[in-house]
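Hi R.,

Here are the chain sequences for the assembly we discussed:
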Amino acid sequence: MSEGGIVFTSQQTDENLTGANTRRVTFGDVDQIGPDDLAGRYLRQFWQPVMHSHDLEAGRALPLNILDEQFTIYRGESGKPFVISSRCPHRSAPMHAGWVQGDEIRCFYHGWKFAGDGTCTEQPAERPAFCERAGIKSYPTQEYIGLIFVFFGEGEPPEMPRYPAFDSKDVVVTYDTYKRPCSYYNNLENSGDFSHIAFTHSSLHGSWDESNQEPTIMAEESPWGVTMTNAFPDGRRIVYQFGMPNILHARVLPDDPNYDYREFLAIWVPIDDDNHIQFTLTSTPNVPGKIEGYLKRRAERFAGYDQDPVEIARKIVSGQMKYEDVDPKRVWLVVLQDNIVQTGVGRPSRRPPELLGRSDACVLRQRRVWLRELQKFADGKPLKQWRYDPAEVPVHSEFFTTKKN
Ligand code: FES
Ligand SMILES: [Fe+2]
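And here is the predicted structure of the full complex:
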């Protein structure tokens, strides 16, 4: 990178783009995630979480809006989750209004019934029935680490990644999932933006003072995505692992006196181009004598939050409210702080050119990797097969455990 930084625009292409490409992929492509969009189709090549397992009881059907599409999700009486098209192929009734019967679902309008694989099994008013022509689209599902994952792509789904730090009996996993009204990509590339911690999150325990603790930020492509390192002059290091296409594994800021760090997994799934959900898992060692206090303080903290961090951020960004007037006991502060910056910067395809410096090394590497893979995807070339192996992509954290200076 040159001394004065580099200008990065929404028209930026892959570094190795050659003249023969069928479609010129630009950075502005990353935030269009519908079923016909390039980034939308790329994201659909991977298992995506859509819901917490505990939000779907057996026998219940619900509407599911994700990746700019509408589906019906239901849990059969056997406990297995199913995802099918939102509308009945007969006269378009919303399938989630119907009845779950066994592992099948019956339409509320004229009673057509479908198995979880989409096969039509009954058409009560049709004699003879023509079930073989009346299937509904269905999508493979899996449940893991308390989330329902769905594969929305074409063909065979890939193997489901496993995250041992979050599926062990020795830990307690808690869920800090939230929705944010901005592109998923804004959150994705905030993950390696270490320098924002000293400012956006300056009030948080574990933050630092950039004026005398200035770190060096480094990024390197890994077998899973990008290894993102923040190295302080005194030898402390923070290493986060970004997983392609939309995952972060980290050890994050301590939030309780009983524990030094929280093991953290975030997956950013677009709801549409301008909204996303971050599925957030934190894993804490289940140490008797420590975990009880941690869970109690956590529950008390959340019980005190009676203000919506999306609404407060909207008021701050629009100038109707000052950040200094926020009561940190009444709002989930870290989410509010990130809401302000991530909704404020606008989506990648509509941003003015950005001037990136050395501290943007992780942001830049994530963009380069994304652009390269999207260009290959557009050209029909083989994609890099990402793999998560915690031994290959270890996380590490040495935050300042006292407030800056
Ligand atoms: S619309 Fe579903 S059975 Fe008629
Ligand atoms: Fe942040």
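The chain has a mean pLDDT of 94. The chain has two domains: 52-150, 164-397.

Let me know if anything looks off.

Best,
T.
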